[in-house]
Amino acid sequence: MRTTSALVALLAAASVAACSNDSKLQDTAMHAGVAGTNTDTARETGAGGTAGGTAAGAQGASKVKTIDGFKTPESVRWDASSSQWFVSNINGSPLAKDNNGFISRLKADGTVDSLHFIQAGKNGVTLNGPKGMAVSGDTLFVADIDAVRAFSKSTGKPLTSWNLAPQGAHFLNDIALGPNGDVYITDTEVAFNADGSTSHTTTDRIFMLNRDRKGASIAIQNDSLGRPNGIIWDAKNDRFVVLSFGAPTVVAWAPGSKSVTTLATGKGQFDGAEITSDGRILVSSWADSSVSVVNGNALTHLVTGVEAPADIGLDPARGLLAIPLFNKGQVELYQLGGR
Asked: Which residues pair with 282 in a beta bridge?
């Protein structure tokens, strides 16, 4: 397992780079959370552009486009029912309660529909460091440091929130829906101290917000989670796939179990996970700037040369992969091969 200091040194460096990233998107909308015409513009680089990653392997992926101008993009989520992408923008340090985060909404082809679709400080919205997201019906769930926030995916209106700080949440990172409608949230459990040092706050854990949405509980507490980051439900195998950022492991966890099983190992610093329509598990890694597929107990590269690839998104029907580049303020779209 990587040390906590190494983990947070990387996050600290990333947040410094993110704070200096100038936006290349211009949003002339006066209100967040109102569906309507596209008032955002973006500079897009087509498949022939030179920036960003490259496909790796015979069944890799081909770049479709690059969308510039986000502010510390941490997560991309595809919503099949509305044919839209959502992008969470931390807009600064991952743990700063600065209320300047926002959620962008993109059309199916990656065109920006609304840069500040949900924006902190407007229309009653609070968003500090938004990270992982999940969609259930009209509700968009967002992990935000030590809270889970819910918004209408169609209007952007804030619906409710759950404060997990009293239960010890420090670094809520990714969100996934369980098979029964429960919501699961990883807590990477790191903190920045006043003197600039860092600490592993407590035992790694995953929270569960049950289907009645009345409150959250700790679903598993175990340091073998390795600073849990990405999480996704694997319906075929009736389990969650959980990615470790502080260990070189991809693990499986079944709800109700107090232990995990290692599925694969790699370079580590894993972030986002997705599962393709044919059951392939995709994972992003900061350690070697890649997106890979789990192949037995190892990983095979699909895309390489993507610096700080955060929480990836996938439209499984089209095999279209979205990679948020945390430090560059970009989202890259790739067409997967081998479908």
From this structure: 274, 293
Query: What fold is seen in the domain 4-27+42-336?
Result: Neuraminidase (2.120.10)
**What is the pLDDT, as a whole number, of residue 337?**
85
How would DSSP label each residue in 297-317?
A: TEEEEEEE--SSB-B-EEETT
Residue 47, pLDDT score:
60
State both tokens at 201: 């706050």
- The whole-number pLDDT of residue 144 equals 98
Beta bridge mates, 190: 200
pLDDT at 25: 35
Q: Return the half-sphere exposure (C-beta side, CA atoms, 13 A cut-off) of residue 312.
A: 37
Q: What are the beta bridge partners of residue 116?
A: none
Residues whose CB is less than 8 angstroms from the CB of residue 315 and which lie 6 or more positions away in sequence, other chains included: 78, 80, 108, 322
- Predicted local confidence at residue 175, as pLDDT: 98
Residue 46: its pLDDT value, please? 66
Position of tokens 């107990």? Answer: 297
Cβ contact 28:210 at 8 Å: no
> Residue ranges of the chain with pLDDT lower than 70?
1-52, 55-59, 196-198, 338-339
The whole-number pLDDT of residue 89 equals 98
Tokens 């854990």 correspond to 205
Identify any residues that bridge with 186 across adjacent strands, giving them in sequence order. 206
Helix H or strand E encompassing 186: strand 183-187
Residue 71, phi then psi, degrees to nearest 5:
-115, 95
Residue 206 contacts residue 216 (beta carbons within 8 Å): no
3-state DSSP percent of the chain in helix, strand and coil, to 5: 5, 50, 45
Find the helix or strand (DSSP H, E) in which 322 lies.
Answer: strand 320-325
**Maximum alpha-carbon separation in the chain:** 50
CA distances from 52 to 41, 57, 138, 151, 193 (A): 20, 17, 33, 32, 34
